[in-house]
Design brief:
Two copies of one chain form a homodimer. Chain A is an alpha/beta fold and 333 residues long. Chain A has helices at 52-66, 101-113, 160-163, 198-206, 226-247, 305-312, 315-318; strands spanning 5-10, 32-39, 71-74, 116-126, 129-137, 143-148, 180-182, 185-189, 211-216, 219-220, 251-255, 257-260, 270-273, 277-279, 285-288, 295-302. The first copy, chain A, has a single domain, classed as Nitrilase/N-carbamoyl-D-aminoacid amidohydrolase (4-Layer Sandwich), CATH 3.60.110.10. In chain A, 23% of the residues lie in helices and 26% in strands. The first copy, chain A, has a seven-stranded mixed sheet. In chain A, strands 7-8-9-11-14-15 form a six-stranded mixed sheet, covered by helices on one side. The first copy, chain A, has a three-stranded antiparallel sheet with strand order 10-13-12, with helices on one face. In chain A, strand 2 (32-39), helix 1 (52-66) and strand 3 form a beta-alpha-beta unit. The longest helix of chain A has 22 residues, at 226-247. At the A-B interface, helix 4, helix 5 and helix 7 of A face helix 4, helix 5 and helix 7 of B.
Chain lengths: 333, 333
């Protein structure tokens, strides 16, 4: 395996029209945070070390903490290969409860490093009931919250509807499209396919999220031509930058990287395109990882900037909530 | 005034995975259309020719028809300078009824050229009740429909809340966020500030729009620095490409171009940034106009491609309409 690269960008832009006054906020939390995205290739499971891939993620978190990071975001289902390329009931053995082995190990690490860690677990909730779940470990090691993927894809090579029950929407019980409060701020954690749905990002913003985070596993079908591959990767980046803009929020997406073959040999596998990135509240790219190799991407992010951007572009002021009723319909036919 | 440039792009991409079968559609309409965006600079009103700027737009439409176009999109409030840089009750004199002089002239032109024209009118609905209204003239000259801007901005230099009442949402009476059927397809016509709201684009898509169209007037504050100007223009393009992607639809935005001074001299005016563009249903830019000069941008667009893109990325299948209720709230506090 290639040695992971570490790339850092330091970015603290100011709008040319400064806010009139800096009001104090209720919570004592930093307005500038250093964020790390851990982009990795898959490691095949090995009986001698079944947690080899989690170990790699944890090492990368330690490196990020040494570099001064306050928050680390891991890729989707980071504990092993992307297993949804085939439908195999035996693979439900990979699932684990929450709290469970992964969340506990990462919680200990978060406490040790005093760093918030956003991770991704194949969750066993009950027999026959499994979720694709993000776990948020706070800087004191506590499980600050979870988010069960709400939008589940299913297309050739990504048979997720077989494995994952869509998350419940039940905010009164802390479930669904609601952000998680942590030491570094209120995090709007979503997962992969959610990234194509403006509704998900908007609901997080309306609930006060200060940063949108997406653990992701997306890549190319190697049989697609280069032009189609380029359109797909560019669309993936663009639609998420659009959510940042529409909501005046910074956004980070952490993706897998590298080719993972299809165990069923039905397809040519998936070439995960990396390209993990962080953008600011005007959708401006602050840093972006490469398309072929593991990389830890580090950015210093000014969470207070969103306030200034939203004063210039006050979209939340002008939403026509009286006119949006049909968003709750499948189709307006 | 500079001679308008005419730029043409011919683009008919195919996804690498062709749709299995081409089903016949109910309506007899072309799947490939040639679309013209008429990007213009303002002309100051002149007593000897009060419709000089409309005349320029109409000449450009004639040129586009000669080039084989089936549809022309004009910029926002194209009949004169962007008058909302100051609040002046006398400027309500600029408004006109619909049907009225502009829609009638454009209707005659549409019939003569057998071309659909999407235009933008300062509408007088009643004394003290004015709208910023798009008019859609069908290829037979008939007024196929109107759309009254639903999201109204208001910030220094863009005092639109003074002039424009937000459009009603009343689909049963043909009002609000609903598309317009024409000879070239079902058009999701929105206006300028609407372009920042994913809700508006989504509602048009859910109502069967085949193409999203935005007459626009957006530009730079000349006192902003270059980095901020670049972020703003890029954000404007990106958020709209995001709507195209999220809805699997092509999209076109036609913007003003050139500096318009502030009659009140309170500001340095607005430098409209042109950059009119057309993108496909994966958000891929098909053609883009320049940032300083008038230009007619012509693209050949395959409306049938959206069907193929939506088969690969079936976002409409996976929307969580059970979880979107809070989109109808101002804020989730």
């Amino acid at each position: 395996m290639a040695t992971p690269r570490i790339s850092a960008a330091f970015f603290c832009p100011r709008l040319s029209k400064p806010a009139a006054t800096q009001h104090s906020t209720k919570r004592m939390k930093p307005s500038t945070i250093k964020l790390a995205l851990i982009q990795q290739t898959a490691i095949q499971p090995d009986a001698t070390n079944p947690t080899a891939m989690l170990d790699v993620q944890m090492s990368a978190c330690r490196e990020a903490a040494k570099a001064g990071c306050h928050l680390a975001l891991l890729q989707e289902l980071h504990n092993g290969p992307y297993f949804c390329q085939q439908e195999d009931p035996g693979l439900f053995d990979l699932a684990e409860p929450i709290p469970g082995p992964t969340s506990e190990r990462l919680g200990q690490l978060a406490a040790e490093l005093e760093m918030v860690i956003v991770a991704s677990v194949f969750e066993r909730r009950a027999a026959g009931l499994y979720h694709n779940t993000a776990v948020v470990l706070d800087a004191d090691g506590r499980l600050a919250g979870t988010y069960r993927k709400m939008h589940i894809p299913d297309d050739p090579g990504f048979y997720e509807k077989f494995y994952f029950t869509p998350g419940d929407q039940d905010p009164a019980r802390g479930l669904g499209l609601i952000p998680v409060d942590t030491a570094v701020g209120r995090l709007g954690v979503l997962v992969c396919w959610d990234q194509w749905f403006p509704e998900a990002a908007r609901l997080m913003a309306l609930a006060g999220a200060e940063l949108l985070l997406y653990p992701t596993a997306i890549g190319w079908d190697p049989t697609d031509d280069a032009a189609e591959q380029q359109r797909q990767r560019e669309a993936w980046i663009t639609v998420q930058r659009g959510h940042a803009i529409a909501n005046g929020l910074p956004l980070a997406a952490c993706n897998r990287v590298g080719l993972e073959s299809d165990p069923s040999r039905a397809t040519a596998g998936i070439r995960f395109w990396g390209s993990s990135f962080i953008c600011g509240p005007q959708g401006e790219i602050l840093a972006q990882a490469n398309v072929t190799e593991p990389e830890t991407l580090i950015v210093e992010l000014d969470l207070a900037r969103a306030e200034q951007v939203r004063r210039i572009w006050p979209f939340l002021r002008d939403r026509r909530i009286d006119a949006y009723g049909d968003l709750l319909r499948r189709y307006r036919d």
